[in-house]
Design goal:
This protein is α/β, with parallel strands linked by helices. It has helices at residues 38-58, 82-87, 98-108, 111-114, 127-135, 148-155, 212-226, 251-267, 271-274, 284-294, 300-303, 321-328, 346-353, 368-377, and strands spanning 3-6, 17-20, 29-33, 62-67, 70-76, 117-121, 138-143, 163-167, 176-181, 184-189, 232-237, 240-246, 334-338, 356-361, 381-384.
């Protein structure tokens, strides 16, 4: 197939719309089910690159949950603890394949943002992964292949309209890419830099103890940032992104946004949240929204006298700021990546509140010495790798 006609572009008024290769070659994708849209395909192709690179860097199956051309979550296929299975709402699915674990992590990191996602999988989609996808609100999936039983499940989703795309895993794009804006064509070399352990050698802090697990998390953060709209930062832990801040004009706002998401991820593991007694028949989206409100500043939206019954069988106690801070103080060993240098130490101070221990950033700021000093105060390990990862 050399061309795929689309219903419309980013918005319904943007017609005509299609995808094709400028060199006239065949498209590297095959639509097996449904009809993906313009934004779906942007998410699919960016997501595929991300998971391919995660697989290459770690050797483990990888998955990402994309929304509006940035990842809401990304992860590799490490096993899930019982607590993780519970907070990701997969504890009723039995044994999960490594690929299914990767998607459960990617989807579960920020379930609010992942609502209506487009999924990318590094490996052939198996039934275990398809069964998670079956019950989530999602627009589609891209993978190098599908087991027959997995394809049958996915093809029935959304009344048969779920977008299922197979991509040629051996496809290699041209080294130079083009983009048109306002009738002007931009040309640049593809960002084909390989992200691996060689980018983690220049440790600039007094603490130089960088364990293998932290290296994996730093690589996950960097590869995630490579396909996240800039400015961007990514918190990672235990083989997955736990907080992504994308598209902010100020870097510290990225750090705060992603840090709040990382905090929410950890708060969801607290006994107070795990013990929430939800109302019978509550929908998955309403449950996710209730948790987000409960652990945030808008808790009265779900605990008010006339509303709590919609969400809970019994009214939970307020989760006080003091209780939340006490729980969050237990979070540690978190990795933080940045797509460009940190200009001020306030980024380090905010990261410390979310348990950051390991940092990777390009360096090159005139205030690098002050940022390094801040890291030393917190006994953090920081790598300056000299690589900027802007993505637009």
């Amino acid at each position: 197939m050399k061309e795929l006609e689309l219903k419309y572009g980013c918005n319904p008024n943007q017609k005509p719309s299609r995808i094709y290769r400028a060199d006239g070659g065949d498209l590297p994708i095959t639509v097996l089910n449904g009809r993906p849209g313009y934004i779906n395909l942007l998410d699919a192709l960016n997501g595929w690159q991300l998971v391919s690179e995660l697989k290459a860097a770690t050797g483990l199956p990888a998955a990402t949950s994309f929304k509006h051309v940035s990842p809401a979550g990304a992860a590799i296929g490490r096993p899930l603890s019982d607590t993780m299975k519970k907070i990701y709402f997969v504890d009723d699915l039995g044994d999960l394949s490594p690929l299914a674990c990767a998607y459960a992590r990617a989807r579960g990191a920020d379930r609010m943002s992942s609502f209506g996602d487009f999924v990318a999988l590094s490996d052939v989609c198996d039934l275990s992964t398809a069964m998670i996808l079956k019950r989530e609100v999602s627009d589609g999936v891209i993978a190098p292949g599908y087991d027959p039983d997995a394809l049958e499940v996915l093809s029935a989703k959304k009344k048969g309209n779920y977008a299922v795309i197979r991509i040629d895993k051996d496809y290699k794009p041209a080294p130079v890419e083009h983009k048109e804006v306002f009738g002007i064509t931009f040309e640049q070399g593809r960002n084909d830099i390989e992200i691996n352990d060689s980018l983690l050698t220049n440790i600039v802090t007094k603490n130089k103890d960088l364990p293998e697990e932290a290296k994996h998390d730093l690589l996950i953060s960097l590869i995630t940032l490579k396909y996240t709209q800039s400015n961007s930062v990514c918190y990672a832990k235990d083989g997955q992104a736990i907080g992504i801040g994308a598209g902010q004009q100020s870097r510290v706002h990225c750090v705060r946004l992603a840090g709040q998401k990382a905090d929410n991820w950890f708060l969801r593991q607290s006994p107070k949240v795990l013990e929430l007694d939800f109302a019978e028949g509550i929908g998955r989206a309403d449950r996710d929204n209730a948790i987000d409100n409960y652990i945030g500043d808008t808790y009265m939206d779900v605990l008010g006298d006339n509303v709590w019954q919609k969400y809970f069988k019994t009214r939970p106690d307020v989760y006080s700021a003091e209780e939340k801070r006490k729980w969050l103080d237990k979070m540690n060993g978190v990795s933080l990546g940045s797509d460009a240098f940190f200009p001020f130490r306030d980024n380090i101070d905010r990261g410390a509140k979310s348990g950051v221990k390991y940092i990777v950033q390009p360096g090159g700021s005139v205030r690098d010495d002050l940022v390094i000093e801040a890291c030393d105060e917190y006994k953090m390990v920081m790598v300056c790798n000299g690589v900027r990862l802007f993505h637009h």
